[in-house]
Amino acid sequence: MEMVRVKDLCKTYNEKVPYTALSNVDMTLNKGEFVGIMGPSGSGKTTLLNIVSTIDHPTSGEVRIEGDNPHAMSLEELALYRRRELGFVFQSFNLLSTLTVKENIMLPLTLDGSSIKEMKERVQEVAQKLGITDILDKRTYEISGGQAQRTAVARALIHKPKLVLADEPTGNLDSKAARDVMELLTKLNKEMQTTTMLVTHDAMAASFCDRVIFIKDGQLHNEIVCGDNREVFYQRIINVLSLLGGFRHDFSTVRV
Ligand SMILES: Nc1ncnc2c1ncn2[C@@H]1O[C@H](COP(=O)(O)OP(=O)(O)OP(=O)(O)O)[C@@H](O)[C@H]1O
């Protein structure tokens, strides 16, 4: 079943000199699928994620999420839609430092007016899945980067969103923490059947996906699907990246 449908999507930034960041992008994400988006620096990955996640608007074309067109909603409808149906994970964690880990995780439910009982139950459930029950009362400055990103993942998933959007979630983590976060994200994706779109430059992170879509110069380049062997998938990702060229970062040195 189709969860996300991107149709003929174009984005031009109207600066002094207009810049076309995306041209005629078509893609589909199926329900429960974990899809990576890769491409050289400046190829349009974040622009694509921002438009699918409703943070930015397309110049033309359409995004449908389970049939809904979020870009056609009013600001109030859109705010509610984002809060209820989408989950976000960012490179910089975006946790509120004045709140505890537990309060950060609860935030989407607090904003939605859920009962205290329900919030407590859901926090316990999601914290257990992410192995962070023992840090729930800590402040965000008392925890490690890996724990911070697991907290951010818990916050993104607590309201059981339809779609999780992750922009370089391993970008600020060491290789061990990065691998842990990817293992948890994929485990929860399978358990909860939450469709996930991941932008990354990291081949190790991408090798956890079911499918990786490559973009270059704002257009779809190709895609590869993970078979039975993740190590082979990782090598195939590296091969496409070396063909594409133009990477800001060195390829990940982490072995799968
Ligand atoms: N708000 C903006 N105004 C003008 N140009 C922009 C804006 N945001 C992005 N761009 C340009 O659009 C192009 C695509 O940017 P985008 O951030 O989507 O690329 P990316 O593939 O995510 O890059 P990176 O891997 O470096 O994060 C780049 O050339 C960028 O300079």
TrEMBL record:
GO terms for molecular function: ATP binding; ATP hydrolysis activity; transmembrane transporter activity. The keyword Zinc does not apply. InterPro entries: AAA+_ATPase (IPR003593), ABC_transporter-like_ATP-bd (IPR003439), MacB-like_ATP-bd (IPR017911), P-loop_NTPase (IPR027417). It holds the Pfam family ABC_tran. GO terms for cellular component: membrane protein complex. Residues 4-242 form the ABC transporter domain. Keywords: ATP-binding, Nucleotide-binding, Transport. Belongs to the ABC transporter superfamily. This is Putative ABC transport system ATP-binding protein.
